[in-house]
C-alpha cells in the first residue's frame, strides 16, 4: 500500500497517520494487496485527494465502496477509467446532470475533470477485494475518511456536500450545516432512483448557484 498523500491533505490529516487504527489498516491493506486482487491499483488509493487538493475543494460527493470489477475503480467515487462501460449509478447521475443543466451525456465515465475543478469524489472505504463488495469495510477506512470530512467541515466554509442515499447521509452527520450547503437525495443506483427521489433533485444547478453567490467558480458538470 502506497500511503503517500497530496501535501495539503497530508498536513490536514497528519494526526491520523500516527494513530493505532491507521497502522493496523495499513498492515491489513498491504497484506491484502500481496495475497488477493484488490482495487483500485495501490498507487490510486488516494486519487480523490490527489486530484482535489484541500484548499481547492468546493464540492464533496460521498460514495461507499470502490467498484469491484476489473479495470473500473481508480480512486474516485462513482468514476471509472476511460474505455470502461459506464455503471448504472453513473448513468443516472449523467441523466440528472443533463436534465438539470442541459449538459450532454459524455462518452466516458471518467470524472477526473470534476475532481480537477474542486469536487472531492470520496468513497468511505478506499479499497475493495475483487468481486466482493464491502470486503474492506470496518477495517479503519471509514474513520480515516470521516476525519477528512471533519477537517473540511471545520476548516473551510461554503462547501457543498452532496449526500446521496442513507449511507452517505449518515456519514455526513458530522458536517456543520450552518457553514456549508447540504444536499440530500436517494442513491442514484437504479434500485433506489427508479422509485423516485433521485431524478429532478437539481443538485448540480443548486451547487453552482450556491458557489456563484459566494464568489466561487461554478463547476462545469
Describe what this molecule looks like in 3D.
It is globular, with a radius of gyration of 17 Å. The mean pLDDT is 96. The protein is α/β, with parallel strands linked by helices. It has nine helices and six strands, in the order ααβαβααββαβαβαα.
Q: Strand percentage, roughly?
A: 5-15%
Mean pLDDT: 96
Query: For the terminal residues, how far apart are their CA atoms?
Result: 32 Å
Low-confidence segments, given as residue ranges, are none
| Strand segment tally | 6
N to C succession of SSEs? HHEHEHHEEHEHEHH
The gross shape turns out to be globular
Percent helix range: 25-40%
Rg value: 17 Å
* Spatial strand arrangement across the major sheet: 3-2-5-6
Class from secondary-structure proportions: alpha/beta
How many DSSP helices? 9
* Biggest β-sheet strands, sense, barrel: 4 strands, parallel
Distinctive features:
9 helices; 221 residues; alpha/beta
Quick overview:
This protein is of the alpha/beta class and 221 residues long. It has helices at 7-17, 20-35, 47-51, 88-101, 112-115, 141-155, 166-171, 190-193, 203-213, and strands spanning 38-39, 59-63, 119-123, 128-129, 160-164, 181-185. It is built from 9 helices and 6 strands, in the order H-H-E-H-E-H-H-E-E-H-E-H-E-H-H.
Amino acid at each position: 500500500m502506497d500511503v503517500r498523500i497530496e501535501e495539503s491533505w497530508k498536513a490536514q490529516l497528519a494526526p491520523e497517520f500516527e494513530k493505532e487504527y491507521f497502522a493496523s489498516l495499513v498492515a491489513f491493506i498491504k497484506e491484502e494487496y500481496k495475497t488477493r486482487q484488490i482495487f483500485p491499483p495501490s498507487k490510486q488509493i488516494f486519487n480523490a485527494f490527489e486530484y482535489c487538493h484541500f484548499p481547492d475543494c468546493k464540492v464533496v460527493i460521498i460514495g461507499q465502496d470502490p467498484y469491484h470489477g476489473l479495470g473500473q475503480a481508480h480512486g474516485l467515487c462513482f468514476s471509472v477509467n476511460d474505455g470502461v462501460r459506464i455503471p448504472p449509478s453513473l448513468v443516472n447521475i449523467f441523466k440528472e446532470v443533463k436534465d438539470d443543466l442541459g449538459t450532454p451525456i459524455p462518452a466516458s465515465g471518467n470524472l477526473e475533470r470534476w475532481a480537477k475543478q474542486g469536487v472531492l469524489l470520496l468513497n468511505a472505504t478506499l479499497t475493495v477485494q475483487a468481486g466482493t463488495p464491502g470486503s474492506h469495510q470496518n477495517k479503519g477506512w471509514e474513520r480515516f475518511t470521516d476525519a477528512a470530512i471533519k477537517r473540511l467541515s471545520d476548516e473551510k466554509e461554503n462547501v457543498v456536500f452532496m449526500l446521496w442515499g442513507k449511507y452517505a447521509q449518515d456519514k455526513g452527520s458530522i458536517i456543520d450545516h450552518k457553514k456549508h450547503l447540504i444536499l440530500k437525495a436517494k442513491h442514484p443506483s437504479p434500485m433506489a432512483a427508479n422509485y423516485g427521489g433521485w431524478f429532478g433533485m437539481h443538485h448540480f444547478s443548486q451547487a453552482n448557484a450556491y458557489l456563484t453567490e459566494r464568489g466561487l467558480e461554478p463547476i462545469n458538470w
